Structure prediction request, 784 residues.
Amino acid sequence: MAQQINAPRGMRDFLPVEKAKREELIQKAKAAYLARGFQEIETPILEDLNRLQSGQGGDNEKLVFKVQKRGEEFTEALAQGAELADLGLRFDLTVPLTRYFASNQGKLPRVLKAIQTGPVFRAERPQKGRYRQFIQCDIDIIGEDSMLAEFELISASLAALEAMGVSGATIRVNHRELLLKSIADLGVSPADALSAMISIDKLDKIGIDGVCEELGEKFGAEVAKQAASWLSSLSALDTPEQLKSLFETFGKKLRYDPTLVRGMGYYTGTIFEIEHPHSSSSIGGGGRYDGMVGKWLGVNVPAVGISLGIERIVDLVPDTRPQTPALVLLVSEEQSYAMALQAQQGLLANWRVRIDRKPKNVKALLTELSEQGFSHFAFLGESGEVDIKPIS
Amino acid sequence: MAQQINAPRGMRDFLPVEKAKREELIQKAKAAYLARGFQEIETPILEDLNRLQSGQGGDNEKLVFKVQKRGEEFTEALAQGAELADLGLRFDLTVPLTRYFASNQGKLPRVLKAIQTGPVFRAERPQKGRYRQFIQCDIDIIGEDSMLAEFELISASLAALEAMGVSGATIRVNHRELLLKSIADLGVSPADALSAMISIDKLDKIGIDGVCEELGEKFGAEVAKQAASWLSSLSALDTPEQLKSLFETFGKKLRYDPTLVRGMGYYTGTIFEIEHPHSSSSIGGGGRYDGMVGKWLGVNVPAVGISLGIERIVDLVPDTRPQTPALVLLVSEEQSYAMALQAQQGLLANWRVRIDRKPKNVKALLTELSEQGFSHFAFLGESGEVDIKPIS
Prediction:
């Protein structure tokens, strides 16, 4: 019997036309990064579970898909009521990257400029636009403590977006230290800073009044009053000294946002969020996380990265036709298969060539394949000749 | 404290130079397939566990990494002693492909010529050359019952290998029906055919005597005697009618091997194994599996595929330099970062350009980066000028 059959909940199959667009965008972003001296690396899809849940991943650590131990180890763990899983699917590319740098430091350039693209997994409740498996496309610079890293990441990310056909993106910038100082100035203790950030992060959604109310509930009326004063005066704030050289270089591509939070606890310096007028949510983001590699290595190593949200960028960019035009070559009988392959070979310099057996209803086939991006067709002649015509 | 830290057991990190080579090979294979009208598709890394363990995956079903249920579902399953996992990591790309075709048939071309590359996972005991995560690169044709599918797969696979720089590959070919007939002729009952195949599959390792001994132990002396006679007379066998047109077209690229088994139970027609004189094990393989899609769909759909073993091909091919030469641009101070980005932009037409801060020991940096494929360097002049020199 036939079964109702689908991809797992919250995960997606990609049809050929969708996949071609995704690949094209990713290859264009990669090319922009490679041209600027970044190098591609790869880590496994799985990491040891205790590494994924070591307190560096924030709320994402609760969303790990856990992989069961196997064989006797599983049986024993079950009998003992111990942890049944030993591996997990990565929820981002940053935690694995810091682990990778610590594992391979001796074989890597002293300053690693890394490109990573690949799937990450989060056991979220599936909803519109949120998937349990999705692609991240990250660049990170590890080992560079100067602002050169920020200059390069901003420049390369903007170039990658342009290469993908996304113009008009702007990057909101803040500095975690400045944010923490602002929060301290409100009268919030350092231990409560993360909780205050979570409230401030809602500014877009609930406005100044909402944020102040929430801060008041958490930390009392005086903090709420200070916050109201701070949040109302933001537009008058000057670009801070730490970010000045970035703003001088990138001009209106950047916007200083003193309330930009970025959810992760691991950021230590500049933080970024990339926005685009046609996208309601950010299309990328990142920041400096100088403490993370040290967690594994025992010695701090400066690090900063920007991640592009390919899933959202795909929706921003119109579909394109492939550069090499594609034709359908129709053959009649087995005796001509070898000849069809020869004809195909001869056409490859100018065409992508798909071979199909000539069906009874040629028009239906060509209509179907025209939706797949095939623009031309030809019947294979008796001596191997082809007469190429557009699919009308 | 620093921790000893590595990728999970049996899984690999790829260094930049290794990753570049792997990507280059995969892109070349894909380009050869795309040129021949194949279309890339993608399925999730995870599939529902009951689908992965539905009896189509042979021994690989025992090697599934199982993903635990989450939240209340997990707690309930644990309390009830029920199955604790609901998802699994795919062990190949074929089972997911047949599921994909069944799920999406209405949106796909009637004949799907699919390219898939991606990681698969098997919880094998890690050993030299065998990994728990590895890449497969498959092409499959679904919906074509004529030998056109075999013609195209062989032609495209050989072209992909050539494009990757692997020449001299040959493909051993057999037909599952012929193999089953040979096994029946030995006096083995149809129910025991798979067990007999497992013995015959060891021919390379244990020779004719070993195979006959094993068949004798399983099915008695008469079967062993018949097998000895069959296996000794193989070289005299003619190419069978079913495969004749393939041999006429591809000549010495193909070799008829009446004992070729291919492990999976799902094959129904032609079977392939790609070998290369410099590789001790096969570098690819596949076959026709006309029954698998029907398992999900309730209606049989013809299907045939060939998978390339990228992991082995990587070892066969010498390392290459990237086409665009790469240079290191050295800058001195923060005031020059913007100028360095401008200089980089101007050089991109001809160079990959990495920017680094000029260290005290320039020679050490250049030596290090030369190992990463950077062949030239330049200091950024005071007015932004660059004087490019080879790294000697």
Q: What stands out?
A: Residues 326-390 of chain A form a domain with the Rossmann fold fold (CATH 3.40.50.800). The two ends of chain A are 40 Å apart (CA to CA).
